[in-house]
């Protein structure tokens, strides 16, 4: 298994820094392929419903449900999520009515013998609304579907609103995994990003969840004002001591042209790329020293975690809800404003404004604003990009065999020229031989750049993405 020492040299050395300077450029995050920037408005409600019907006959056979609650009582200035500052109760009532109605529309087209392997509540802040709303939707699911034996039922929670009775309620509804958005323990950092501190001590929260057999992910963000490599190391050391099942350290994505509140952070000074790398390295060390393993660049899990096991067998997947194993991966049917459904061959995204979403559901039962249907060629590119981003490798022979094609056919579809890998080989980031590419540990820092070589949709003039490193 990988150890941080396998990076082979000091991440904060001049050598690594010059690599960062070389490869740091705007590029897709590849949480989907094609990226959401390619979704188009010619895809509408009818297309979506037809594809939902068709999805019953395709794999993955499992069902994943995603519910989006956009509401937050206060806007954190670093936030890159789709949020809506808290509305009055009557508006939330209407929003949840719309979610239930959208669920009923889609559920009538789904084959009820398919099992649910994932339910995910994201936001915004789903735990800032009354649990009665969540219970209502979860009961609707239970009336219509059966869960797989190891179904993951998860929610993203902001600790500023987590109370003991709420944790008890989450357990009684059936939640078995909670992501707690800590971001940083340091109250000064939280103040600079306009974020309320945790209501209860974070250690206490973890104990309360564990008492209920609920697994916990702790989410952190590095690259925020007020953070230093040392302070972030302290943060992750404290996290590791708490022994959550997973630790997630997101690199702060600064996109003020999309999220105008992020501009406010610039006045406090954002850490530069090298300082950020120091934070990443310290977090990596702290997690490794305590026996966590790296999943992709930003997740850490215990060796017996299903994600670690899937990675070891090159079977790790990713959807909009995060990493998943073969067992938990389902086609994603998403509900709520801005949510993205991810069927085997298509994406469909709902309109962004909660008000428009409520109106659309009232009149049509669905609220699709845009989407993308993948061609056979796109599906191959999707598989290739996913393989690189999740499993740090690519075996073109295996993909050609699976598709009963020649490797040269696959290369043509990808518009791939092996010479474009030379800079990565020369910089010691990958190996490529007999059509098999392996990303070296240090190369993981540049996964997005490596994946971009295999992306035929890129024009070379991308500017509206966050930086790749
Ligand atoms: C839907 S969000 C937040 C859930 C919940 N509202 C909270 O604040 O804890 C899920 C996670 O995305 C991460 N995140 C949000 N904005 C980000 C940004 N600009 N860059 C990187 N990660 C970000 C945070 O770690 C956050 O916990
Ligand atoms: S970070 Fe979480 S709580 Fe803060 S604004 Fe974003 S979604 Fe809301």
Topology:
Elements: H1 14-23, H2 45-55, E1 63-69, E2 71-72, E3 84-85, H3 89-107, E4 115-123, H4 131-144, E5 146-157, H5 164-173, E6 177-183, H6 187-192, H7 202-211, E7 215-222, H8 229-242, E8 246-251, H9 263-266, H10 273-289, E9 293-295, E10 299-301, H11 306-312, E11 317-319, E12 322-324, E13 331-335, E14 340-343, E15 346-350, H12 354-364, E16 368-373, H13 376-391, E17 393-395, H14 396-402, H15 407-414, H16 422-426, E18 430-433, E19 436-439, H17 447-452
Parallel strand pairs: 1-4, 1-13, 2-3, 4-5, 5-6, 6-7, 7-8
Antiparallel strand pairs: 8-10, 9-10, 11-12, 14-15, 15-16, 17-19, 18-19
Helix pairs in contact: 3-4, 3-12, 4-5, 8-10, 14-15
- Per CATH, the superfamily of the largest domain is tm_1862 like domain
The domain tally reads 2
The third-level CATH topology of the largest domain is: pyruvate-formate lyase- activating enzyme
Number of helices: 17
The CATH class of the largest domain is Alpha Beta
Please tell me how large the radius of gyration is: 22 Å
- How would you classify the helix and strand content by structural class? alpha/beta
Distance between the termini: 23 Å
> Quick check: average pLDDT?
92
Tell me, what's the shape? globular
Which regions contain 5 or more consecutive residues with pLDDT less than 50? Answer: none
Bound molecules: S-adenosylmethionine, iron/sulfur cluster
**Helix content bin:** 25-40%
| Beta-strand content | 15-25%
Q: Major sheet: order of its strands?
A: 9-10-8-7-6-5-4-1-13
Count of DSSP strands: 19
Largest sheet composition: 9 strands, mixed
CATH architecture of the largest domain: Alpha-Beta Horseshoe
